[in-house]
Amino acid sequence: MSKSIEAKNLSAQLQYQAFGNPPSTLPQTAISNAFPGLEMDFRNVWKRILVGIELHESSNLVVAVDKSAPPEAQGLAEGYRLMHINDVSVMVEVKGPQYVGGPNVSLPDTTFNDPRMPLEWSNALAVIVHEFSGQMVQCKFESLEDPTKTVQASLMVRPFFDEEEVDGEKVRRAVIAKDIAPPGELTQSLCSPWQNDYRECACFYWAATRPDYVNVEARPDGTSTGNNWMQKDRTPETPNVYIVDDWMDPTLVNYTDLFRHWEKSLRFIIEGKDEEAPPPQPE
Amino acid sequence: MSTNIQSGSLVQIRRNSTAVPLPHAPAPTSFHLFETELGAHVMLVNGSRVFTISSEIAAALEGSEGDAAQLLAELGLSAPEYITGAPLTDSPIRSLSLAIAQKCNLGCTYCYAQEGGFGAQEKNMSAEAARAAVDMLLSEAAAGDSFNLAFLGGEPLTNRKLLRECTERAVALAQTKHARISFSITTNGTLLTPEDGEFFERHGFAVTVSLDGVGEVHDRTRPFKSGRGSYDRVLANVRSLLAMQQRMQVSARVTVTPANLFLRETLDEFLSLGFHSVGFSPMLSSPTGAGEMGKAEMDVMLAQMISCGEEFERRVARGERYSFLNMTNAMRELHKGTHRPYPCGAGAGYLGVSADGGLYACHRFVEDPAGAMGDVKSGVDVARQARWLAERHVHMQEPCRNCWARYMCGGGCHHEVIHRGRPACDYIRGWLHYCLQAYIRLLERRPEFFYA
User: Fold this and answer.
1) Angle, nearest 10°, between helix axes B425-445 and B295-317?
2) Chain B partners of A27 at a C-beta cutoff of 8 Å?
3) Is the same domain home to A205 and A113?
4) Least enclosed by CB within 10 Å: which of A163, A181, A271, B37?
């Protein structure tokens, strides 16, 4: 039977599960994780929030600059990060305990080896989007290589919401403005939960449907010992040492392993312990 | 096969009929199949979702009779129930109509307001009741909310001073609340002045003029109380407003009775005069029975409506404006996939206010205990409102529960249904069937009409 079906009106388009698509392509059954997600990557709405430059939300790096941007902004794509918009900081020093009951210490950003952490912009920039939409703001950038090198630039906050005219008045609609995200951009950089994010995500995050800490044994002092789930060498003879994650470390499963032969790189964990037979080794 | 008329699908009727098929019979179905020259199509009742489908799928659906759920699921077409049996709750009032004058200078034969007085003594609304109504509408407004204030009667322009006072009070109050307010008036047009036009233009009124046809046709059903015709007077008055339209929109509303079944001529004449839009509505329930449409007349009206619709299709496909209101509304709602458990907002977000400040389910229920819902001083009678919304839900209506058009029609005008029943179901289904076909054609020929 020809299964040709074409959704015509808007309610049909919204609800239609195209042949071959999984249930998660429908609004009510979507995973709806969006940072990044399976359906969209919400971080991408921030790429163009400042007119003239393109940003990477979770690192604060400027990744591109338009020729039309002000002269002082032209060099920003060479390793500069956004630090402030007006008085609002998007990088702050974060303090807290590293273990239960521990003292409050500085929690650095290990990716860039910086004592300051980038904030999540939906919260950090809410006040800027609300109060300065369409207006010029003072932005401060800092070189990743040399934090003493800074740039100040006056840039316009791109209106986040679409607008329509009602009775001669401009009214915001509950829709992201077209200029914020050109077609296709919201669905770029999606999750790959069985490859990158299977390795990347931890601690019961939805993409990390696996134990993080395996072969755990209690020690008399109340602490424990065990393996990182990514350690390649896990025979009964291997010293029971936890290797801290570093994606460059060849003793740990890396992204390429997961893409190329996940079925050989991973093994079953039964009741917290490796299954008895060692996994077949990759050729 | 006569039982199919009651229990079978449209397709069976088509198969067993030699006449032009029209989907007049209720079908206990979750879908409605229809065809155009562009192929086979289906409208799924749940969510008013419209699809073009292969002829094989159409045949499979046709054969599924009343048990299509599994097939729809296999085709990826099932969806959660958009409309449950739960009545609407928490519906803040967004629109009020004020019967600022329960009196009228015309003596229309069929009027639900019985020449303006609603069967009671003629009266004007007091300024006190009008102010209380405006305040009730806007006192709880939040910034950005939208409201509508409508003036009806009787003939609202017999109480012009109060109309202006209410409008200005509402504008001022909306401004303090940073809310938006729009205004509308339904008038017989006989008392309209250029100054009224300036006032309506200033406040962006939607002005609806009741006109039942051209010249004598109009005069037969809408005479002055003396018996003299009103058409010439209305036209003389309305021309200056038509010329003024910028923010204001002046539309013609035609009540269709057995005496004016020439819709196409009426539509073209009124559009050529410069009306912003022209809409038709059949007279289904009048207090005396005068002017009510019967089955034969409804069939004629349907054919006329479709003729107007076909002209709309031709014009819109060429990119021209042809403001046949029933059609523009139908195209907009079909495109969205509007689905609703009520025919309108009456008794929910919309209420009518009588001259004495009584609240009613809508402008037609003024002075009618069947639609009474409190008053402007003590507010909405929430118990009565809750009962109304529970009883009027389309799932509670027969035979609507089994009709494919139930979430598009919503069960029909409450006032007409309560006072006469449902004599127009075949007409409504016939019209919606045609509109679905026209929607498919226009979406193909003029997509920018829908995706401007």
Assistant:
1) 10
2) none
3) no
4) A271
Residue of B nearest to A12 (CA): B49
- Are A81 and A119 a contacting pair, CB within 8 Å? no
CB-based contact A31:A37 (threshold 8 Å)? yes
> From chain B, which residues contact A within 8 Å (Cβ)?
41, 44, 47-57, 60, 75-77, 79-80, 144, 180, 182, 204, 247, 334-337, 339, 439-440, 443
Residue type, B387: R
Q: Rounded mean pLDDT of A146-165?
A: 94
| Facing A10 at nearest CB: one of B80, B204, B335 | B335
Q: Is residue A127 part of a domain?
A: yes
Question: Among A138, A156, A180, which residue terminates a domain?
Answer: A180
Question: Do A206 and A164 belong to one domain?
Answer: no
Q: Per the CB < 8 Å rule, is A9 touching B334?
A: yes
Whether residues A140 and A213 share a domain: the answer is: no
Residues of B within 8 A of A166 (CB-CB) are 180
* pLDDT for res A174: 85
CA angle A186, A190, A195 (to 5 degrees): 175
Q: Is residue A53 part of a domain?
A: yes
Residue at which a domain ends, from A180, A208, A223: A180
Q: In this structure, are A171 and A48 located in the same domain?
A: yes
Question: What's the Cα-to-Cα distance from B123 to each of B109, B153, B421, rounded to whole Å?
Answer: 20, 10, 30
Judge if A46 and A174 occupy the same domain: yes
CA torsion angle B55 B57 B59 B63 (round to 10): -170
Which DSSP helix (H) or strand (E) runs through B306?
Answer: helix B295-317
- A8 → closest Cβ in B52, B56, B76: B52
Could you give the CA distance from residue B408 to residue B78 in angstroms, rounded to a whole number? 19
Q: How many angstroms away from the CA of A103 is the closest CA of chain B?
A: 47
CB-nearest to B80 from A12, A28, A168 is A28
Domain span holding position A269: 196-274
**pLDDT band at A275; cut points 50, 70, 90:** confident
How far apart CA B352 and CA B355 sit, in angstroms, is 10
Peptide bond into B154 cis (omega under 30): yes
Average pLDDT, chain A: 87
d(CA A15, CA B220) in angstroms, rounded, equals 50
Contacts of A10 in chain B (CB under 8 A): 335-337
Q: Are residues A67 and A150 in the same domain?
A: yes
Q: Please indicate, yes or no, if residue A122 is contained in any of the structural domains.
A: yes
Q: Token match 């008085």: residue?
A: A87
Q: Do the Cβ atoms of B336 and A10 come within 8 Å?
A: yes
CA distance B64 to chain A (A): 15
Nearest in space to B414 (alpha carbons), one of B345, B354, B349, B357:
B345
CA–CA gap between residue B6 and residue B210 (Å, rounded): 37
Provide the mean pLDDT of chain B. Answer: 91
Q: Specify whether the CB–CB gap between A263 and A254 falls below 8 A.
A: no
Find chain A residues with C-beta within 8 A of B41's C-beta.
8
> Is there a domain that residue A13 lies in?
no
A 150-169: CB under 8 A from B: 166-169
Please count the structural domains in chain A.
2
Angle subtended by helix axes B425-445 and B325-336, to nearest 10: 70
d(CA B402, CA B287): 30
How many pairs of residues across A and B have Cβ atoms under 8 Å apart? 82
Of the pLDDT bands very low, low, confident and very high (cuts 50, 70, 90), residue A1 is low
